[in-house]
Amino acid sequence: MSKLVSHVVPEWLIVPNSVIESTLVVVLLSIVVIALVRRIKFVVKVNKIPGMPGGLSLIGNVFTFLVPPEEFLNRLTGYVAGLQSSGPILRTWTGPFAFCFLFTAESFEVILSSTKLIDKSRHYNNVLPWLNTGLLTSTGSKWVSRRKLLTAAFHFKILEDFLQVFNEQSQILIQKLSAALKVRNDFDIYPFITLCTLDIICDTAMGCNIQAQSQSNSEYVNAVQSMREIVAARLIRPWIQPDFLFQFSNYSGRQKEALKILHGFTDGVIRKRKLERASHSLDKVTALTNQYREDEFSPKKKRLALLDLLIDASKDGEVLSDLDIREEVDTFMFAGHDTTTTSICWTLFLIGSHPHVQVRINEELDCVFGTSDRPATTTDLNELKYLECCIKEALRLYPIGPIIARKLSEDTVIHGYTVPAHTTVALMTYILHRNPEHFPDPELYQPERFFEENSRGRHPYAYVPFSAGPRNCIGQKFALMEEKVILSSILRNFHIRALDRREELILLNELTLRPRDGVRLHLTPKQKHFKLNFN
Ligand code: HEM
To answer: Which residues bind heme (predicted)?
Structure first.
């Protein structure tokens, strides 16, 4: 063989095996040394930042936070808030991963206003099997182009179109609550609101009516619920976060089943919508917006859905494939219903715990609607200013995303400390919103804080329930509009009283910050032409 080679390759080009081997060893060693030096430099840089006490070498503060789910948020926020006096930024290690907790408006501004620091942390990976890299999870040029495209979908003209859905579904909700009242006056309102917002998001995102409020046991509704639970479970159980370990857990099979239903459903809706559009020769968004038409899922006239905009923008697969469309529709399904449900429930709980706030809302509702039971118009919603302050103040005390996490793509100076690239920064909105400098007596529920005259001069990053900057919540106007319609419908029909006290509630930071045992309310139907006065 070597004779054969020597015929083909000149003698001087043949390198002895020993030289190849030693070169390989040198190259490998150099790679290891470079990686080691980089790692040491990284650790030294991170450790210059004021750290959390009690960390162990190699595993850091992992055990500090290894607590049952219902204790996690309390433990974390209690710990970080208690250490605020040691500095405006706090570093910890969980295993090999460096974390910095941020809780000041100034540090939030550094991260959130940046157009470069847009990478989500690895904690978001748990939703990838469902959402793939849609708007919530994507980064780089993909996120930039999708954000531009999808911003059009939240144009106020399109939102006005959705008002009809918000009103229709709120009406069904009132019927469901009235029916429930025939059995008992106190109950957990959470499941009622969940099904209502699920119906709304299906209709507005996909243009189909799944009638979750009427058939709460539908396959799709159950699959959404399953995924919600699985993603939440992975968030608080680090050992099932890596996919190769997750596949051995009990959740894996359940996730496969749920995804089959969820993706199958979205695929089906996209296919049918495309066929419909082809048969109607509807390829322009404007044509669709102006032309309401029959929908196979519902006998009623239908309006434009977010899906239509995506199909339109897809340019027959040139710009977006069916898979691209699906990941965005799924993202809206995920980001657009649990969030509003939780926010509505917290607002109801806080209004129901503060009778004087409810009296003021009733006065506003009387002023706007009188005794009429007509649906809400855009003008009505603009006039519900006090109700809006109630929603905002609830989001201050209970931000739906109490922690937002980013992975730094470059070294970043925060409060004079250089936080190196690859560190995860955890923005603690829950603590930020309780800073007495911005919100005196921070634990009090005072919607008046958000009156224009009281908000003037407040740091622009002191209140960020929808995040802020280029990666803020794309659905915030949608959310506020939907919440105002649902809340005003409930409060026009019922007087509410919260049955639990705030200090008794156990908070769970799953996908959203929610009370573990729901929101128990006592509902009393309002008499027509009879004004309730609780002074
Ligand atoms: C009260 C209701 C809501 C709250 C409090 C809320 C809050 C947030 C927050 C804090 C973020 C940033 C998350 C992060 O950076 O990790 C976000 C992003 C997002 N939200 Fe919302 N959200 C709400 C409702 C909605 C609705 C109704 C939709 C859609 C219909 C929606 C769609 C999205 C999307 C797609 C993103 C990702 C945006 C991007 O990265 O460009 N959200 N939301």
So the answer is: 473
Q: Dihedral (C-alpha) 515, 520, 524, 528: value to the nearest 10 degrees?
A: 30
The Å distance, Cα 467 to ligand 1 centre, comes to: 8
Report pTM: 0.88
Q: Is residue 38 part of a domain?
A: no
In the reported structure, the alpha carbon of residue 112 is separated from the centroid of ligand 1 by a whole-number distance in angstroms of 14
290: confidence class by pLDDT, cuts 50, 70, 90: very low
Provide the residue range defining the domain that includes 503.
48-525
CA of 48 to the centre of ligand 1 (A): 34
State which of 143, 339, 391 you would mutate to test the pocket of ligand 1, scoring each by most atoms of that ligand within 8 A of its C-beta: 339
- Residue 11 falls inside a structural domain: no
CATH classification at residue 224: 1.10.630.10
Digit-coded pLDDT (tens) for 431-458: 999 999 999 999 999 999 999 999 999 9
The whole-angstrom separation of Cα 302 and Cα 298 is: 8
Is the residue at 5 inside a domain? no
**What is the CA 422 to chain-centroid distance, rounded?**
23
- The 3-state DSSP class for residue 494 equals strand
User: 354 near 348, Cβ under 8 Å?
Assistant: no
Q: Is 345 annotated as a binding residue?
A: no
Q: What's the rounded Cα separation, in Å, for the pair 188 and 107?
A: 38
Complex ipTM, two decimals? 0.99
Report which protein residue has its CA nearest ligand 1's atom 19: 473
What residues line ligand 1, using a CB cutoff of 6 Å? 135-136, 147, 331-332, 335-336, 339-340, 343, 400-401, 404, 465-467, 471, 473-475, 478-479
pLDDT band at 147 (very low <50, low <70, confident <90, very high): very high
Whether 517 maps to a domain, the answer reads yes
Domain count, the chain: 1
Q: Which regions of 346-452 does DSSP assign to beta strands (E)?
A: 403-407, 412-414, 417-419, 424-428
Q: Single out the residue of 228, 449, 262, 178 nearest to residue 337, CA to CA.
A: 228
